[in-house]
Amino acid sequence: xxxxxxxxxxxxxxxxxxxxxxxxxxxxxxxxxxxKGGGLAGAFGGSGGxxxxxxxxxxxxxxxxIMTAAVWILLIMILIRTTQPAPSSExxxxxxxxxxxQPSAPPGPAAPGGxxxx
Length: 118
Known about the structure:
Layout: H1 11-32, H2 60-83
Helix pairs in contact: 1-2
């Protein structure tokens, strides 16, 4: 993909800072939300009659949290893509199409009358 062929050297550093800030913001968003009650028992059916995401699944904090998480994941994918080394034209050891050398025949027994150390 030509879009990611060359990246300015300052882009990964800026993306790291933005990713860090988005991660801290996401943590704070999760911490300020009110608990739904039930704790771990709610995951195993302890809270009777409520949906899998609770009764307040569509409030503003939940929507902002989902959007922030989506941006955070997108930033991670972009950062990985921009910091990967460029593919080389050399064949990889892991590729099955790479030609392999056939082992040479093992050496036979020494011929009689050969040199011996005396």
